[in-house]
Amino acid sequence: MEIFKVENVNFTFAESSKRALNAVSFTIQQGSFAVLFGASGSGKTTLLQLLKRELTPNGKRDGEIFYKGELLEDIDAKTLVSEIGFVMQKPDDQIVMDTVWHELAFGLENMGLSNAQIRKKIAEMTSYFGMGDWFHKKISELSGGQKQLLNLASILIMQPKVLILDEPTSQLDPIAATEFMQTLHRLHEDTGVTIILVEHRLEDVFQFASDIMLIENGSIIAQGSPRIIGQIVKKINEHHIMLEALPTATRIYYGLSTFTNESPITIREGMEFIGNYKNEIQELPRNIIEQKIDKPILAMKDCWFRYGRDFPDIVKGVSLKIQKGEIFCILGGNGAGKTTLLKLLAGQCKPYKGYVLLHDKKMKKYSMEQLYKKNIALLPQNPKTLFLQSTIREDYEVTAKLIGFDKMEASLQIERVMKMLHIESLMDMHPHSVSGGELQKIAIGKLLLLQPKILLLDEPTKGIDVFAKKQLQQLLQQLRAQGMTIIIVTHDMDFAAEIADCCGLYFDGEVLAIDVPKSFFAQNNYYTTAANKIARQLYPNAVTCEDVIELCIANGLDKK
Amino acid sequence: MYLKGFAMFHPMVLFFYFLLVFVILLSTLNPVLLGVFFVSGVMLFSLLHTFRKTLSELFFYLFVWLLVTLAIPLFHHNGMTILFFLNDNPMTLESMFLGMAIGFLIISFAFWCKNYSLYITSDKILYLLGTIQPQLAIWYTLLLRFIPQCKRNFRDIQSTQKTVGFYATSSLFERLFGFVKIIKVAFLLSVEQTFSQIDSMKARGYGLQKRTHFSIYKFYIWDCVCLVWLIVIGILFLLNFKELDFYYEPSLKALTLTKEMSLLYGILLSIGLLPAMIEIKELVKWKFLKSKM
Amino acid sequence: MRKDLLILSFVILIIAVLFSGTKIQSVDEYYLTHIDEITPDSETVYISIRSDTLLNNMEKLKSELHVYVPTDGVILPESEYVLRPGDTVFDILHRAVRHNRIQMEFQGADKNIYSSVYIQGIQYLYEFSAGPLSGWMYEVNGVFPNYGVSKYKLKDGDHITFHYTVNLGKDLGHSF
């Protein structure tokens, strides 16, 4: 049975003239697991919001949306509220109550259920999700992954027939994200609930999905099952940027030639597929950048740090050397440790033991002005905190004034930055109203105005789509070519593998295993890129998708 | 901490208990009552916190008490026993006693407030508000999340802005101006988040029909017993209010320690000690059980 | 943070005390006032303090203060004092109560919006001790002046009487 049928829907936002959605048509079968992906700003969120009446934004809509055969606007509110559930992107934006148990009860209270009924449902839900341990906790004590799980549970407790999720794992670290997806999958298998999911991270979700849709500029340009979607996209454009969003196994498959069979989608399938290739050549000749000059621009010497006398040590005797002009990535598990490390490097926090050297001078000898004007710049996890004015242009102008540019120089510099980042169209918007990838660009733009020599980035790839990631990569490489030193804290291993000159693993207050990406990832069994996992039997030093493809091509098929 | 010992009682009972304590404490300056509640307040506090913390709090409040004791006679000159004259104003012994009493009042109040906040947690307040009017509970909870979120936003923005050279100007005015601006932006960010929370509430059917109010609190027999006991004490207190009320000037009221009054004071002491006794009972019970296991 | 506030409060207290002057006198010193000898050519005034109204309104008065109400209503019988040049009603009252060791509390002129001294209590009978409309009022030669005790300049032969009222003067035959 068709649970959702969308026919020729156009949508324009109330204050805008451009169509957000253009002639969108698709059907969702009951019990299917549909995944929607596309670049940010392509209309994915808008489309999802149109399916949930309470969240539909103001604007003009043409076309029809049917739910279970009836027009969406004709269905009564109570049914809609309980039958269609919506999980938002940011866990904190969705939680209303103060304690876990009360949050679970919220939806049921709205429906007017009695105390006894609510108790029963909560007991059931808690057992199913294994939430017994943290049932009585306050929301503030939960981790990001737990919060998102709570959101899921508080929607499921209302027994929806359809579950709509808008990038639910984008704010979570990889482990929590994988767990969330597993839970979703288990739910789908156990209850047959229809799932409509928007995701950037397709690696985990492809194996569970039944339908995939690609949306671009407000229209759905490709639809199909996970194993053939790659083909469909390739037919549109051999080198479509969104192909890079597909799981690594699929990318390798399509990167090798225009196969017309079904593609592998999991790591294991990828390994089986690679098994068809020879492995005589294990290393490709490459320009290895010799970095023998040990002239670190930024160094940490035996630093210890904690947030207060009664708090545990976060950084325990870390010594680190970062060379001028290199891109250094700090990887590691979740938690505040990596961000703290970055703050120490940026001078935002001071270690109680040990010191930080900047240009061979102790950091505490620098004044605030010397540190942050034309020296160090830090991009925080929440770039919104960088902006104080009401338009981006104003903010840039204020920053330029702060640096000390006169009017002429200021507008020149702003022009330069705008061109480099392609953000001309965003300049007159309010900083809080731009999307994730755009926000990041304007944030980096602001930092570039400060003409830093060292740029520090805290989780820059959180929640941004593949296209924006690629742009970020190119930008960083461009900046490195100009001589900038870049330090990135991230969990995104694929990104680090592509861009880093040097990687370090942060664990239990220390930075270990500092090495070039190739050796860094190749040495790890579990904490490594998907490409490495797929190819390690044959090509243990292959770290990125491109590496694997190149090596496969170089080796040729094993004619066994 | 939660749901063991005194916290096991129903929120309504807990609320009435603290209401009674605060009313009795703040309505008279009776030295016996002050002593009773000071001792029971500190005792309860010491059961809930580490020994070191209790000591450091006591130490701090000792100075507060001293401050009040010295300050009151500077403003109150009534009293029969004059010690000396300062600027034509008599410094009387009675005023000093009054000062000491008010000092004890203030520090007892402080300790009881701390105890209160440990027992009447936000979810209990939520429950209580909800029984009056479910809407109240929702607004309270949104407020509860709004304030820490605002603080967090403020801290984040401030630390980010520091590294963007925001405070690098030497002009005090500019820095102040910037500070205000950060407050404004932190506030706006939190408001945006609240809108999103309201969306989430609507998405789960808030406002469609009359809400029920879920609670995990059930009325047990000990709740009823306790409530009745509290009401009885409350009435006893009101009836004897005239006797209990105390004055310090022009001369100290004579304390009548008749059998009835002693009994009354004893009963009121038991009220102050009620949570402490329950906590001790729990401690003993588990220690005993542990040794058996 | 709290400790800083506490230290600050102590410092403010000490400063306030020092600022308002540090005239410390023992009890006897204070009561040892110099009373001028009355000679035939000296100018004199008469002062008395009465609390008759309370005798009819004892139920209004706080119970602990009943013992301070004289049964005949006279706290200070009419007494003669030398009038020094520039003396106001307050100066005479202050001298009289010190001479007779009667308790009196007043609020200084600088703390008052009328910028005059305000008499808060005499012999432990304070304003509001017998209800919200009670307090001390004074009349000179039978007339209740409209200004404070430290503003009324006396002339030779004036008769000052302080009365306690329980309803803003109505019981004394005068209302504001």
What does this entry look like structurally?
The complex is a heterotrimer of chains A (560), B (293) and C (176). Chain A has 560 residues and is α/β, with parallel strands linked by helices. Chain A is built from 20 helices and 20 strands. Chain A folds into three domains: 2-226, Rossmann fold (3-Layer(aba) Sandwich); 238-275 and 536-560, no CATH class; 325-348 and 366-535, Rossmann fold, CATH 3.40.50.300. Chain A has a six-stranded mixed beta sheet with strand order 6-7-8-3-9-10, sandwiched between helices. In chain A, strands 16-17-18-13-19-20 form a six-stranded mixed beta sheet, sandwiched between helices. By secondary structure, chain B is mainly α. Chain B is built from ten helices and two strands. Chain B has two domains: 5-120 and 230-292, no CATH class; 126-203, no CATH class. Chain B is globular. The longest helix of chain C is centred in the first third of the chain and has 18 residues, at 2-19. Chains A and B meet through helix 2, helix 3, helix 4, helix 5 and helix 12 of A and helix 5, helix 6 and helix 7 of B. Strand 1 (82-86) of chain B pairs antiparallel with strand 1 (24-25) of chain C, so a sheet runs across the interface.
Strand content of chain B: under 5%
Q: What is the number of strand segments of chain C?
A: 8
Whole-number mean pLDDT of chain B: 84
The whole-angstrom Rg of chain C is 19 Å
Indicate the overall shape of chain B.
globular
* CATH architecture level-2 label of chain C: Beta Complex
Return Rg of chain B in Å: 25 Å
Helical segment count of chain B: 10
What brief labels describe this structure?
heterotrimer; A: 560 residues; alpha/beta; Rossmann fold; six-stranded mixed sheet; 20 helices; 20 strands; globular; C: 176 residues; alpha+beta; Ferric Hydroxamate Uptake Protein, Chain A, domain 1; four-stranded mixed sheet; three-stranded antiparallel sheet
Annotate the secondary structure layout:
The complex is a heterotrimer of chains A (560), B (293) and C (176).
Chain A lengths: L1 E12 L5 E11 L3 E5 L6 H8 L7 E9 L2 E2 L5 H7 E4 L3 H4 L5 H11 L4 H15 L14 H13 L5 E5 L7 H18 L2 E5 L12 E6 L2 E6 L4 H8 L11 H9 L10 H8 L21 E10 L9 E9 L3 E6 L4 H10 L6 E6 L2 E2 L5 H5 L3 E4 L12 H12 L3 H15 L14 H14 L4 E5 L7 H16 L3 E5 L3 H7 L2 E6 L2 E6 L1 H7 L6 H6 L9 H11 L5
Parallel strand pairs in A: 3-8, 3-9, 6-7, 7-8, 13-18, 13-19, 16-17, 17-18
Antiparallel strand pairs in A: 1-2, 1-4, 4-5, 9-10, 11-12, 11-14, 14-15, 19-20
Helix pairs in contact in A: 4-6, 6-7, 9-10, 9-20, 13-14, 13-15, 14-15
Chain B lengths: L10 H17 L3 H18 L2 H25 L6 E5 L2 E4 H27 L2 H11 L1 H30 L8 H32 L17 H19 L1 H4 L14 H34 L1
Antiparallel strand pairs in B: 1-2
Chain C lengths: L1 H18 L4 E2 L1 H5 L12 E7 L1 H5 L17 E9 L6 H11 L4 E4 L10 E5 L2 E2 L8 E6 L18 E7 L11
Parallel strand pairs in C: 2-8
Antiparallel strand pairs in C: 2-3, 4-5, 5-6, 7-8
